[in-house]
Amino acid sequence: MAKICVIGGGASGLVAAIFAKRNGHDVTILEGNNECGKKLQITGNGRGNYFNSNMALNYYNSQNIDLLENIVNPENIAKINNFFKEIGLVANIKDGYYYPNSNQAISIKSVLLNEIKYLNIKIVYNHLVTNIKKDNNLFCITTNQGDFIADKVIIATGSKSYPKTGSTGIGYDLAKNFNHTIIPVLPALVQLKGQDSFYKEWSGIRTTVNLKLYENNQYIKQENGEIQLTDYGISGICVYNLSSLVARGLYKNKREVIHINFLPFLNFDNAMELLDWFEKRATVIKNRTISELFDSLLNYKLVNVFLKVLKIAKNKHWFDLTKNEKLSLCKMLIDYEFIVTETNSFDHAQVCSGGIPLSEINTKTMESLKVKNLYFTGEILDVDGQCGGYNLGFAWLSGMLAGENIND
Ligand SMILES: Cc1cc2nc3c(=O)[nH]c(=O)nc-3n(C[C@H](O)[C@H](O)[C@H](O)COP(=O)(O)OP(=O)(O)OC[C@H]3O[C@@H](n4cnc5c(N)ncnc54)[C@H](O)[C@@H]3O)c2cc1C
C-alpha cells in the first residue's frame, strides 16, 4: 500500500483518488478551498454537461493529439461510463450530450463525494499546496498549513481559468519545479473581442449564424449555431469552439478574422447571390422600405445597426439604393469580417489551452516521464476540448488512468 497525495479535489482529482483507493492505497486529497468541485458545480450553466456519446479526437486540441488516443479510447470510455453508473449517476442524454437526470451539476459532485466518503478517503480542506520536493524517493508537500509526506503524488490542480474556483495556475509552477515544460497557457472556450466601434449598439442580440475562421487569410474551420453579440464583440458556443485556435493564433501574432454569415439558411456563398435574392424579394413584396423588407428576416436591432453603419436611411426603398450600397449591405449580412483583437481574460474562459505536453507523460498511466511516482491529470495538461462534455470527459478519463495504474 502506497501513501498517495492527490493535489486538488476537482473533477479529475476526485476520480483519481477513488480509483487509487480502490486500488488498495492510502489516499489523501489536499484541497486549497473549503470545498471540493467548485468548478464542477458550475459546469454546463449549472446543469453539468459531463460527457459526450461521440468522444472523437477531433473535438480536442493538443500539440500531441496522437498520444491522446491512449487516454480517450473506446475501452477507457466504456470503463468510465460504467464507473459513473456504478456510483449511481443517472444520465440524461440529449443529442449525445450527457447531463445528470436532475439537470444539476452539483449531483455529479455529490455522487463522487458519496463514493469518497464510502471509501474513507481523507480530504484535507483549506490546504493550498505551495511547493513539492522529492527527497530519497519521498515527496515532501508544503502547504499553507503544514507539510505532508507521500510515496506518490497526483497533481490535479486544473488550469488558470475561472481562478475564483481555486484553479489559479499554481500547478504549472509545481510542474516546472520538476523540469516539466509548459506550453503557453491561453484562455479557451472564451468570448472574442473585435476592433469595430459599433458593438455597443448590437449588444444583447442573439441570432443563428455561420462562422468561418481565417488565419492570415487562410481558411481554418467553421462553426454553426447561435451567436451572442456583446458590447465588446461575440460570444456563444460556436464562438467558444473557435476560440482556442484563435487564442493560439493571436499568441503567434497571426491575423485572426471570423467571417460571419447572418443569413446562413439562404445557403449563399457571396454578396452578389444575396443581392439578386433581394432584387427578387423587392419585386415581389412591392413598395416596402428597406427596413420593412427585412421584416421577419433578421433581428430589427441588428438591421438598424447595419443600416446606420453603412449610412443608409431605413425609410429608403431597395431600388433607390446605389449598387455599391446594395453590395455593401449584402456583404455585411453574409460576410461580415469580425477582426479579432483579443480573447476575453482567464476570468471568463471555461478552459485553457496549453499546459504540460502529453509527450512528457506516459499517457497510458498519466505518470510523469521525468519524475517517477509523480502523476498529472486533467486540465493542467495540454489538452482542451470543445463544448459538449469533452473537458470533463478528459478530466474523468485521465483521473481514472492515474488512479488505476498507480502501483506499489
Ligand atoms: C463556467 C464553466 C463551465 C464549464 N462547463 C463545462 C461543461 O459543461 N462540460 C465540460 O466538459 N467542461 C466544462 N467546463 C470545464 C471543466 O469544468 C474543467 O475542464 C474541469 O473541471 C477540469 O478538471 P480538473 O480536475 O483538471 O480541474 P478543476 O476541476 O479546476 O479542479 C482543480 C482543483 O484543484 C484545486 N487546487 C488548485 N491548486 C491547488 C493547490 N495548489 N493546492 C490545493 N488545491 C489546489 C482547486 O481548488 C480545484 O478544486 C466548464 C468550466 C467552466 C469554468
The first-level CATH class name of the largest domain = Alpha Beta
Label the CATH architecture of the largest domain. 3-Layer(bba) Sandwich
- Output mean pLDDT: 97
Number of separate strands: 23
Bound molecules: flavin-adenine dinucleotide
Q: What percentage of the residues does DSSP assign to strands (E)?
A: 25-35%
Give the overall form.
elongated
How many angstroms does the end-to-end distance come to? 6 Å
Into which percent range does the helicity of residues fall? 25-40%
**What is the spatial order of strands in the main beta sheet?**
13-16-15-14-17-18
Q: Main beta sheet, described?
A: 6 strands, antiparallel, barrel
Task: State Rg.
Answer: 25 Å
In CATH, what is the homologous superfamily of the largest domain? FAD/NAD(P)-binding domain
Task: Provide the domain count.
Answer: 2
Number of contiguous helices: 12
Backbone structural class: alpha+beta
How would you summarize the topology of this molecule?
Blueprint: E1 3-7, H1 11-22, E2 26-30, E3 51-52, E4 60-61, H2 65-68, H3 74-86, E5 91-94, E6 97-100, H4 105-118, E7 122-124, E8 129-135, E9 138-143, E10 146-150, E11 152-155, H5 170-176, E12 183-188, E13 192-194, H6 199-202, E14 206-215, E15 218-229, E16 233-235, H7 237-251, E17 256-261, H8 271-284, H9 290-293, H10 300-309, H11 323-334, E18 336-343, E19 351-355, E20 361-362, E21 367-368, E22 374-376, E23 384-385, H12 390-405
Parallel strand pairs: 1-2, 1-11, 2-7, 11-22
Antiparallel strand pairs: 3-6, 4-23, 5-6, 8-9, 9-10, 12-19, 13-16, 13-18, 14-15, 14-17, 15-16, 17-18, 20-21
Bound molecules: flavin-adenine dinucleotide (FAD).
